[in-house]
Amino acid sequence: MRRINIPAMVPVNVFIDLEPLAVLTIHIRKYPEHGFFIPFAGAAIVALMAVMVFELIKNPVNGLMAMSRLKQDVSKIFPVAADSVPGAWMYVVFDSMIYKDIRPFYPFDSNPFYGKMDPPEVRMTCIVLMDAAVAVYGVIPAGRRHNKAL
After folding, report:
1. At what angle do helices 6-26 and 77-98 cross, to 10 degrees?
2. What residue numbers bound the domain in which 139 lies?
3. Which of 25, 32, 90, 135 is least surrounded by Cβ atoms within 10 Å, i.e. has the fewest?
């Protein structure tokens, strides 16, 4: 079974959040908080830009991955893209459930995901998914083995 490429997926979600962060910190009044990169099309563009960046920095990233417990290879472009784009879209779905102003299917004005889950449920789902990823990657079992040796 192929695991999700965490080094490809996590930065994409951070990059998507840079736009609202800039709007809030720079106080851009006429620009929506959830603007261009939050709809599915914009998130896919961010993901594909991240794939291009990974292509440029794949050797240093692979070096970092070799030192970590996430021994994942980012040298092949297809697996990186195959995890970046759905990861970005998953981010859009979760954010769309919480924020009414998000238009995931821009230029259409509706948000069919809004209110499907309450914000605490969305956050708890994200925490459970993170915990599942940690368990799948063996960080918890490896940590327990390490502690037993002490």
Report:
1. 40
2. 6-149
3. 25
